Amino acid sequence: MAEIDFDGVTKVFGAGPPAVDGLTLHVNEGEFMVLVGPSGCGKTTALRMLAGLEEISSGTLRIGGVVVNNTLPKDRDVAMVFQNYALYPNMSVERNIGFALKIRGDSKSEIKRKVDEAAAILHLEDYLERRPKALSGGQRQRVAMGRAIVRNPRAFLMDEPLSNLDAKLRVEMRLEIARIQRLLGVATVYVTHDQVEAMTMGDRVAVMRDGKLQQVDTPQDLYDRPANEFVAGFMGSPPMNLIRCRVRAGEDRVEVVFGDQVVELPWNYTTSHALPPSGVDVVVGVRPEDVIVADASSTNTIKARVERREALGSEILVHLSHLDVTVGAEAGAGGDARVSTLVAKMGPRSNVSVGDVLSVQISPEHAHFFDAVTGATLKEK
Amino acid sequence: MLAIAAVMLYPFWVMIVTSLKSEQQFLSGGGFSWLSWHDLTSVIPVGQEILSSTIVCSASILVILVVGLPAGFAFSKLRFRASTAVFLIMVSAMMVPLQAILMPEFVNVTRLHLTGGYAGAILVYAALGTPFSVFLFTTYFRGVPDELIEAGIVDGLGYFGALWRLIVPIAIPAIATVTVLQFIQIWDDLLVGLLFIQNTNERPITVGLAVLAAGRTTSIPELMAGSLISAVPAMVVYLIFQRYLVKGLTMGIDR
């Protein structure tokens, strides 16, 4: 078991922009770290550098405190699970799992003992003689896991290992991988583009974009306190509503104008935020669950029409379009809305139909505010 | 299909029937005799010549595989400078006909003092067959997921280990294809054997048959018997490996 340290690690392919740009990230011993981000954000490249499958352009990479920049993959003592499992098609499940041990020179009895142990953990005892092509997707995935855990490596590296499974199996394997990782207590770096996987599996989650690390935090903190507009929009399903508004500052209060609703910022916001001056644009972020349907008679609301209704069983997602054509534009040009629709999350028995006109409010206590130019949160000074 | 099969099999039928006649029976058109088979073995050393052909074929194919497998692996899976250009140059050698380079080859091999026995012919056959094998293996290996090799490397293999322990076992169709096609080509070739194997006790079966046909009198039944003996090994090799041929030839094309 070991800690992993990325220290300003950069990877450049050819003359293009860096695929990974100055990544600095610490993974604690036994920690489950998830790298998440959209396609092309550099997460897989970072993982491959850690495995030794890509050379590092600059920076320092340490495993267990030892610099491994120029260490061969076989000498790093890490195990990797690939997206398509990469099982050896000419070998049985037993030989697949024990292959790394055989290369390492372990005795036959030792290999047998470890393979049997791994098979028991993964419930693969009945499939040891089968070839990979005779296994289902979930079984193949477990064999790939078995191949990794049997080595008792210093770190597990997983590159989107669930992306080829169907939705139900993915949920099962999500739990299975998390269980095994906790059982073995080995530092794990897990790459995914699926933020649900990231939220449910990781002790901490590192969000990447365009090769740069955006934020590292626990799943709940990422959700509750996103460092910037990108993280806010990426984490959460459905994503956060992001609306461009203009700040109106008075002597004793700060407000943002959101259509007909004037959102007065809570007192703790005004004392803990880098407040933009009056007339400056900000991006207001509101989670769908923080869009509240108000009484028709309520004031300070946004009038919106239900355009679409998605019943998910446990909740209803309602897509609303503003009826206020001057959303965010009260202070003049430049205050136009970034989005013209809002998504609200409602209870399963909400009596809402397409075409209804609702009065909705956003909850200022749960709203997020971002710099309209840099996208950075305004929450902490 | 039956008509095509009949057209393809008719020459074999003629060979078999003709070889089972004596010279007299062949000229008169009837009868059955093992005489031509008996005489054949006394005219040319068939056993020795088949052994020579087998040695030349096996050694040439071995060299072709030993060179072609790592080269195909390198061209398909490794990133190195000018790999595409080198690959194209190598593959373009497939387009050069044997006759065009035969004399320069002969001069080179003579300078190396390799024209007496098997070595010169093996070298020439290997040189002629390697471009095709590199092309086929490169195409085949492009269909093998990179992750398979990377998994092996993370598990502790080097590139040669990955090639030998992971790739070769799943490249059996491609290896079989190269083996069959090169075997047929080398086994049936006359020109290289005639020019490069000058020791008469090491000459291959095709040269032996040519000697048989070039005598003052040519016994057609003996020639047919010799031709049949010569054709059988190539057919056997084809029949053994034919189930891999289509897969070996088409893998990678659909990518």
Structural features, described:
The complex is a heterodimer of chains A (381) and B (255). In chain A, 42% of the residues are buried. Chain A is elongated. Helices cover 24% and strands 31% of the residues of chain A. Chain A is built from 9 helices and 20 strands. Chain B is mostly helical and 255 residues long. Helix content of chain B is 78%, strand content 0%. Chain B contains 13 helices and no strands. Chain B is elongated and about 70 Å long. The mean pLDDT of chain B is 87. At the A-B interface, β6 and α2 of A face α8 and α9 of B.
Attribute tags:
A: 381 residues; alpha+beta; 6-stranded mixed sheet; elongated; B: 255 residues; mainly alpha
Cα shape of chain B: elongated
Oligomer: heterodimer
Low-confidence stretches of chain A: 325-339
Strand content of chain A: 25-35%
**Percentage of residues in helical conformation of chain B:** over 70%
Q: What is the H/E string of chain A?
A: EEEHEEEHHHEHEHEEHHEEEHEEEEEEE
Morphology of chain A: elongated
Spatial arrangement of strands, main beta sheet of chain A: 6-7-8-3-9-10
Which blocks of ≥5 consecutive residues of chain B have pLDDT under 50? none
Instruction: Supply the number of helical segments of chain B.
Output: 13
Tell me the fraction of residues in β-strands of chain B, as a range. Answer: under 5%
Task: Encode the helix/strand succession of chain B as letters.
Answer: HHHHHHHHHHHHH
Number of strands of chain B: 0
Q: For the residues shown, what is the average pLDDT of chain A?
A: 86
Helix content of chain A: 10-25%
Distance N to C terminus of chain A: 37 Å
Structural class of chain B: mainly alpha
- Rounded average pLDDT of chain B: 87
